[in-house]
Amino acid sequence: MIEEIQDIGPSKVIQLFFPVSNFHAIVVVDNVALGPSIGGVRVSQDVSTEEVKRLARTMTMKNAVAGLPHGGGKAGIIADPGDPKKEHYFRIFSQAIKDLHEYIPGPDMGSNEECMAWIYDEIGRATALPEEIGGLPLDKLGATGFGLSECAEIACPYANIELKGAKVAIQGFGSVGKAAAKFLSEKGAIVVAASDTKGSICNPDGLDVKELLDLKEEKGSVIHYKKGTVKKCEELFMTPCDILIPAATPDVIGKDNVEGVKAKLILQGANIPITKEAEETLHKKGILSVPDFIANAGGVIMAAMEYAKKSEREAFGAISERIKKNTKLILEKTFKENILPRQAAEAIAKERILKAMQYKRVL
Ligand code: NAD
Predict the structure, then answer these.
(1) Rounded CA gap, 96 and 93, in Å?
(2) pLDDT for the residue 139
(3) SS3 (DSSP) at 112
(4) How distant, in Å, are the alpha carbons of 97, 179, 193, 227 from that of 230?
(5) What residues line ligand 1, using a CB cutoff of 6 Å?
(6) What is the pLDDT of residues 111-145, one digit of tens each?
(7) What percent of the chain has pLDDT over 70?
(8) pLDDT at 362 over 90
(9) Of the candidates 235, 233, 198, which has an alpha carbon nearest to the alpha carbon of residue 219?
(10) Phi, psi of 29 (to 5 degrees)
(11) Measured from the CA of 177, which atom of ligand 1 is nearest?
(12) CB neighbours of 24 closer than 8 A, spacing ≥ 6?
């Protein structure tokens, strides 16, 4: 598992305290053997150093598996994402990381392209910028959700599912969840449940994705959708479905609810949404779970393409090609060696990283 690999990082764990502005931030540069690290800035009141370290490692693996010339990093700003002083926090944070060229910030939960524009304005280094300043707005374009739908195309046959007509449940109807719903329904899948912090909405016959997207935009929550049953957030994981997509927070599937999961295939839209123990249980139950750093790599692939000044078309092409290729590669290894998909993916990523580390000066 990711946490057990000690020999590749983290290379820097930086605590930033801003007593005058009264907030605290964390930056972790995990590994830069493949190039400067790319990773999101999470803004949350309870983001911890441990969480940022785990997320930075996930980025190292994700960038390596995706074949990008980037290492893994991550940052956390401990603040309320709705704080009116958010821009001020971002600008101060940017100045503090100005000389940390090994870390290129991107968006994550609680941050968006506007936040990236503030960072870019301060230090000239950020990904997922607004279009007006030359960016490829990955959340608006739905890069990660698109990648999840491409991943589904390849993974479905391994879980004995036909994508056309497959029933999908999505936890978290934010940037990732909404785009996954859109692209999967375009491929003929049926979204039967979706949730956000207010609750979940279910209809075994399918939710109208366009209506749900409009309603989320207008009223702020999926629970206002009329043609379905409103349930508690956590009930979403028990939805009878073919494909389950956790696309919100870490560790949402664990020992307390893993036995109730009814899906045949899980695509990890969020980063580290399933505990290590629960991943093992899923494997024993015959539920295929494609790990985060394979399934949700669409966003970082687009971010890297933007950084390399490529077009939107080239970015979507790269997402499709790389995610399909890597999903196939790790699932072949998984079934051949009867190991967990995460073990297969980590083995491939680690091999690439260790090879690149051999080219570095030994410190
Ligand atoms: P977001 O803030 O746009 O959306 C998150 C959604 O999850 C919101 O709708 C929120 O209401 C919902 N949510 C939060 N807690 C919930 C809970 N307990 N139950 C149900 N819903 C809940 O964030 P996002 O950009 O969509 O990111 C979601 C996850 O995907 C994060 O783990 C992030 O690290 C990961 N991720 C995002 C990207 C990207 O491109 N944005 C790429 C890779 C991974």
Answers:
(1) 5
(2) 86
(3) coil
(4) 44, 21, 10, 10
(5) 108-109, 138-139, 143-144, 171-177, 195-197, 233, 247-249, 269-271, 296, 299
(6) 999 999 999 999 999 999 999 999 998 888 999 99
(7) 98
(8) no
(9) 198
(10) -100, 115
(11) 26
(12) 15, 16, 17, 18, 78
Other CB atoms within a 10 A radius of the CB of residue 329 amount to 16
CA 173 / ligand 1 centre spacing (Å)? 7
pLDDT at 243 (0 to 100): 98
To the query of whether residue 74 is one of the catalytic residues in this protein, the response is yes
The DSSP result for 60-90, as a single string, is: HHHHHHTT-S-EEEEEEEES-TT-TTHHHHH
Counting Cα atoms < 13 Å in the Cβ hemisphere of 108 gives: 24
pLDDT, mean over the chain: 95
* pLDDT exceeds cutoff 70 at 313: yes
Looking at 108-208, list the stretches that DSSP marks H as alpha helix, in order from N- to C-terminal side.
Answer: 113-123, 138-141, 143-158, 175-186
Pairing relation of β-strands 199-202 and 229-231? Answer: antiparallel
* pLDDT, tens digit (0-9, with 9 covering 90-100), for 1-32: 444 455 899 999 999 999 999 999 999 999 99
> What token pair was written down for 109?
């939960």
Residue of 215, 249, 272, 292 with the most ligand 1 atoms within 8 Å of its CB, for mutation: 249
Residue 190: strand, helix, or coil: strand
Q: What is the pLDDT of residues 211-260, one digit of tens each?
A: 999 999 999 999 999 999 999 999 999 999 999 999 999 999 999 999 99
Choose which residue among 38, 129, 176 to substitute to test ligand 1 binding: the one with the highest number of ligand atoms within 8 A of its C-beta. 176
For residue 205, the tally of other CB atoms under 10 A from its CB is: 9
Amino acid identity of residue 49, one-letter, is T
Neighbouring residues of 210: CB distance < 8 A, sequence distance ≥ 6: none
288 vs 342: CA distance, rounded Å: 11
pTM: 0.90
